Amino acid sequence: FIYFYRKGKPPRRHPPKKPSSNQTDPVGVYCRVRPLGAEDEECCIEVISSTTIQMHTPEGFKTNRNGEYKETQYSFKKVFGVSVSQMELFEHVAKPLVDDLIRGKNGLLFTYGVTGSGKTFTMTGSPGQGGLLPRSLDMIFNSIGSYQAKRYVFKTDEKNSIEIQTEVDALLERQRRDNNLSVPKTPSTRLKADPEIADMIKPEEASKSDGVDDDSSYSIFVSYVEIYNNYIYDLLEETQEDAIKPKPPQSKILREDQNHIMYVAGCLEVEVKSAEEAFQVFWRGQKKRKVANTRLNRESSRSHSVFIIKLAQAPLDADGDNVLQDKNQISVSQLCLVDLAGSERTGRTGAEGTRIREAGNINQSLLNLRTCIEILRENQMCATNKMVPYRDSKITHLFKNYFDGEGKVRMVVCVNPKTDDYEETLLVMRFAEMTQEVEVARPVDRPICGFTPGRRYRNQAFKDELSRRLEERGGPIDPDMPAAANTLILSLPSLPSCELTDPHDDITLPRLIEALENRQRIKQMLMEDYSKTGVCSHFTNMMKPVLQELDTSLISKDNFIQEQNSKLIEKDKIIQGNKAEIERLEKKTKMQEHKIDVLQKTTKIFEDGKRSLQHELETREQRLQRELSEKRRMEQRMHGVISDTQFKWEKECERRVNALQLEMQNKLWVKDEKLKQLKAIVTESKTPGRPEPPPRQTQGGGQAVQFTDIETLKQELTTCSVAVAMRAGSNLGPGLEHHAVIKRRKP
User: Fold this and answer.
1) Reading across the β-sheet that carries 71-75, which strands appear in turn?
2) Terminus-to-terminus CA distance in the chain, angstroms?
3) Which stretches does the entry tag as region Disordered (predicted)?
């Protein structure tokens, strides 16, 4: 046999190995323009072609350098205007992803935009205008409807893989689950649709894929989770409501399977058999999703929702009758439909309290998505090898495999053309333009199983032909056997049901033994009657092989029952061991989850403390910077004041010095004159032959000063001059005193 490329897991490339063809595809980005709410509102978006839109800057916003309004154009893979129907959008965006899903390839489709731009309507739709999600489900079941396996033939486990079991085991599990239900579901209750989701798709809009393998059997599993405040919650998980003390929902964790594919551990996966049932499951989870009323949107999504459609397929056996019992032949592909919460500004939405926290987490997760896209683009365009921070957010961590080449990635950018959303829409456009430049590796095609094609149709044709011939001949009897033998065989009592559901069943086997003994007794009686009545030897010879065949079939059935009984006992032991192991692992998982919660809470506390300390540190640094700048300003001002004062005092000192110098010069001149007069007097007194003058008396009647010695007079004059100079120096300071002494020495 030629094995499938994937073995019980979603098809993907192993990390060390590269696909045979290194072909890549860009991320498909589409744009959908929402109609304006009122006709008199100004529009800032214009669709100028099927791939291009133009942004007009409203009045009151910033303009470019030339003073004119700046008009920017953005290109997409396709632009859908306000008049485009949901059906046309599905044909271009989601239908190729559904075709790939049926062919065994993965796909990711998410809607992106500001709050109130029509993302949820694009993904879900409304009655009569079904969105991408219900149309995808309808197309899947229209394509594989007649090729679906019976319920529980495919079975999911807790490690993101699919197991396969026989129809007998599937029947036993179906009965066991039905018995565990407190209120059995009736067909009427299963098919009763919610009026809010009735008639989502018109019959004439049904789609069907051409890539279905006729010789394979299919089964669909769906799961629905939401990412709220960066925590993952299962929207399909049934919780017992306690009115007195309600329990909060338990968050789920992300894990990596053996093929390095991320999945939500402990998430409920529901097997569905019709599009109506699948959408009912989706709507049951949709009612639990976190929504709130804001100023911009009456039902604003406060979380990112992820609806996962998982398709399991396995080939039929060589006879084309049953599913091949080989786990290695199972191929699993999945399509993820993501409705991202809209980015918003709290100033416009009027958010308070919890809504502010929700908006902060939404904006942070979208920022992480943009960061991952930017780094991916930089690594591809600049040939760098920077680490992409997928783990910073749950939404990016969950879908990291898709950006690494696990399937196609497509994004629908929803925009609202009203001018109030211009700035947010501009950021969305820039992100969309950058996303289109990211290349994703093209997934590898799944090899085809080596069985002969057309097995299912040949087996069905054989059964139809056999049924037709049996109807013509009156039952499952050999053609050579007369009608009397046919009546004889049909007259035997039918065998009771021989299905064993419990190894300790003491009713089924005795009932079967009793029925076989009754048939044997009737057979002996018929043989004796025919022998007594002298039936022809030809009839007897024909009946002998029939009876021998019946005996052989009875013996083989008895052996089969014994084998099944032993298998049930062995399976019961295995089940008990698995239950004990599951309980142990569940306890271990709960303990680890509790530790993770404690660590997350501790981390959050430390992060809050770190943020508060950083904020306090930044505040103190700002205060210190302000004080330093104030100090520098004061120093500059004081330096200016000191310079002005110093200059003023220097001028004043210079003026005073000049005045004192002039005064001292005048005094010295006067004293010089007096000294000259004294010298003249002294000279005259020494002239010979001249008599000495009589001594003078003071005017007040005091004692007269008699100058008899010229040396004594000179000493007195010198002492007087020094005293005058010292008195002048004490008024001028030490520097000027030296100047005065110099001036004094000049005469």
Assistant:
1) 45-47, 52-56, 71-75
2) 134
3) 7-26, 682-703
Cβ neighbours of 583 (radius 10 Å): 10
Query: CB neighbours of 173 closer than 8 A, spacing ≥ 6?
Result: 152, 155, 165
Q: What is the pLDDT of residues 400-435, one digit of tens each?
A: 988 888 889 999 999 988 888 888 888 899 999 999
Tokens representing residue 604 in the block? 């959050």
8-state DSSP, 421:
G
C-alpha–C-alpha distance, residues 183 and 167, integer Å: 25
The rounded distance, in Å, linking the Cα atoms of 32 and 83 is 10
Dig out the tokens for 271 from the structure: 């097997």
What would the mean pLDDT of 99-118 be, rounded to a whole number?
90
Q: Can you read off the two tokens belonging to residue 473?
A: 């001949």
Cα–Cα distance for residue pair 279/337, rounded to 1 Å = 13
> Is 400 in contact with 406 (CB distance < 8 Å)?
no
> Residue positions in the annotated binding site?
113-120
Q: What is the DSSP string of 3-22?
A: --SSSSS-----TT---SS-
Number of H helices, E strands in the chain: 18, 22
CA distance 724 to 720: 6
| Strand bridging mode 45-47 / 162-164 | unpaired
Q: How far apart are the C-alpha atoms of 161 and 44, rounded to whole Å?
A: 49
Strand pairing class (28-33; 300-301): unpaired
Rounded CA-CA distance 496/509 in Å is: 10
Known binding-site positions for ATP = 113-120
Q: How far apart are CA 302 and CA 38, in angstroms?
A: 26
DSSP code, position 405? I
Phi then psi dihedrals of residue 355, to 5 deg: -65, -35
Of 130, 113, 207, nearest in space to 411 by CA: 113
pTM metric for this prediction: 0.61
For residue 45, the SS3 value is strand
For residues 394 and 254, the answer to whether their CB atoms sit within 8 Å is yes
